[in-house]
Each structure stands twice: as C-alpha cells, then as structure tokens.
Amino acid sequence: MPFTPDAQLDLAFSADLIPTEVAQQLPAELHLRPLASTDYHRGHLAVLSVLTVVTDPGEDAWRAQFEAVRAAPRTYYPIVIMDKPSDRIVAVGTTFIERKFLRGLGCVGHIEDIAVDKSQQGKKLGLRIIHALTAISENSGCYKTILNCSDSNIPFYEKCGFQKKENEMAKYAPEGRAQTPRL
C-alpha cells in the first residue's frame, strides 16, 4: 500500500501543531502526524495492543470515537508514527489538555497510551512521541505535563525529562459493568 500524504487525510487536528524539529529526527522512511479518520485500517489498535488487551469495536465504533475526540477542540492530540513503505502505524501516543480552576485557570497536559510496535522498539520512537506530545502540551500553555507509568518504565521517562512525583491511584469499575462511556 503506498504512503498516504497528510493532505489526503482527515486528521484529528492540524499537523502544524507537531514540532518540525521532532519529526525531522525520524528516519526518512517514518512520518509523524496526527491520527487520521482512516487509521483503523492502518493498524492503530494493533499497536495499542502492545500496552494491554484491546477489544476491536469495529470500524464504525472506532470512527465514532475518533469523531468524539475531534469534537473536543484543543483537548485531544492523538499522534502516530507511520512506516511509509507499508503505510502502517508503528507508534502511537496521545496528550489531552485538562483545564483547571487553580493556578490562574491553568492547564495540565496528560500523556497517555504510548505504544511502539514490537518490531520497531529500540529505535527511539517512544522518545520522539513523548517529545512531540510534550511540545504540544507546552505550546498549548500547560504549566506541566504528566503521565503514569510502571516502575520498570521510570528510567525511560526520566531520559525524556520527566521526574518521579507522588503516586498514582486507580479504582476500576466492577466487572460486567458497561465499558462504553455514557457521555
């Protein structure tokens, strides 16, 4: 499948928000861009499955989620790294902007769902994703950018400029409860 240029895609947000200097650090056969409405067919869910169990909701439901993300402007910034020869996704990540009532009505960037295809790990693609998402967060006016990670990933995120701070807590919904948001 030939590589699809950004101009031919329906993107989640403007590609101009991705720092050129980060994209230029990738090898020539890779391309960094926002998630596109047709990325269901480019392996988006397969790359995310590196992180956890991913249930395929089907193309229509995936597209509805894409549209829901895009319907919240200046909030969600999902990005992908594409392998040009195959036109397939090899790395993903998202930052979302939380608007606060404290710190002078400040904003916080949250980085989520960083995943790199197993065949591409060790090539600094995760680092490039983190740098791009952090820049989007900072360029959006966020006073900090945060993420959660396992203890084993702390050294990687420290290399990306993050520092260990406080603790994460989680409470999961009971089994059997609907997993689709009721928004």
If you had to describe this structure to a student in words, what would you say it looks like?
The protein is α+β, with helices and mostly antiparallel strands. A hairpin with a 7-residue loop joins strand 3 (88-99) and strand 4. It has helices at residues 20-23, 44-48, 59-70, 125-139, 154-159, and strands at residues 30-34, 76-83, 88-99, 107-116, 144-147. It is 23% helix and 21% strand.
Topology:
Elements lengths: L19 H4 L6 E5 L9 H5 L10 H12 L5 E8 L4 E12 L7 E10 L8 H15 L4 E4 L6 H6 L24
Parallel strand pairs: 4-5
Antiparallel strand pairs: 1-2, 2-3, 3-4
Average pLDDT for all residues: 95
Strand content: 15-25%
Strand order of the largest sheet: 1-2-3-4-5
Total helical elements: 5
Structural class: alpha+beta
- Got a strand count? 5
Radius of gyration: 16 Å
Considering DSSP H and I runs of 4 or more, what fraction of the residues is helical? 10-25%
Biggest beta-sheet profile: 5 strands, mixed
> For the terminal residues, how far apart are their CA atoms?
36 Å
- What spatial form do the alpha-carbon principal axes imply? globular
Low-confidence stretches: none
| SSE arrangement, N to C | HEHHEEEHEH
Keywords for this structure?
single chain; about 180 residues; five-stranded mixed β-sheet
Offer a concise description of the structure.
The chain is an alpha+beta fold and 183 residues long. 23% of the residues lie in helices and 21% in strands.
